[in-house]
Amino acid sequence: MLSITRRGFMMLSAVATLAACSTTIPMLPKAASTPETLTDAEILAAINAVRAANGAPPWAYNSRLEDAARSQARLMAQKNTMSHDLGVTLRERVTAAGYLGAVGENVGKGYADLQGVIGGWMGSSGHRNTLLSHRFVEFGLAAARAPGGKLYWAMIAGGSFEAWIG
After folding, report:
1. Chain-centre distance of CA 102, in angstroms?
2. Where does residue 137 fall: left (phi above 0), alpha (psi -120 to 50 degrees), or beta otherwise?
3. Rounded Cα–Cα distance for residues 151 and 108 (Å)
4. Largest CA distance in the chain
């Protein structure tokens, strides 16, 4: 008969939990692109790989949402501050880019690559909820570098307002 101590049980539980978590962020191939020059296809593949690994349907890439995300990433880099509102709200940015649907936004700073920022978002419940939401159907993502070299990231997810009613 196998005898296991409480401490041994706790250690095995911790290892099992960590092993289960490793499947939520698939290892993505290293892209040859820099964060500022990632292609839509590279971004789409990375985001949809994480969504698929977590049971969420794929999203489409939207250039208008990318334009709004680029505006936010550049503004954060210029001000060297991470924030959702640096004088221009999310709604104002997406409307200026020509997008009229429901939106949610993830921002990040200091991550060297796309896989890193996705991992950061997956580790934050609010950002994870946006990234894995079934209510959004498309997104845009951009990165910008501050004069000191720090990277700022913005991802805006979008979809129909009807998905949020009821």
Report:
1. 17
2. alpha
3. 8
4. 69
Q: 45-64 pLDDT, tens per residue?
A: 999 999 999 999 999 999 99
- pTM for the structure as a whole: 0.80
Looking at residue 87, what is its pLDDT?
A: 86
128-to-87, 106, 133, 140, 147 alpha-carbon distances in Å: 25, 9, 8, 16, 29
Q: Which tokens is 133 given?
A: 């939401």
Q: pLDDT digit string (tens) for 131-142? A: 999 999 999 999
- The angle that helices 40-53 and 114-122 make with each other, rounded to 10 degrees, is 30
d(CA 72, CA 156) in angstroms, rounded, equals 10
β 138-145/60-61 pair status: parallel
Give me the amino acid identity at 145. R
